[in-house]
Write a structure and sequence with these properties.
about 0% strand, mainly alpha
Amino acid sequence: MSVTEPRKRPPRPYPLAGVSMRDLLASCAAAEAVSTPPRLPDPSLKDRPVGRPEAA
């Protein structure tokens, strides 16, 4: 076998499974959203009166 000749690899006994980068990033974002606790309510908004919409 010469240096310029490509090496032949034996066939793999199983197919390679791959995940797209889009799917990987989406799963990371979903995991973060599920594992992050909800934010506490803002105390400065607690004392504000709730406005009611006016009828048209």
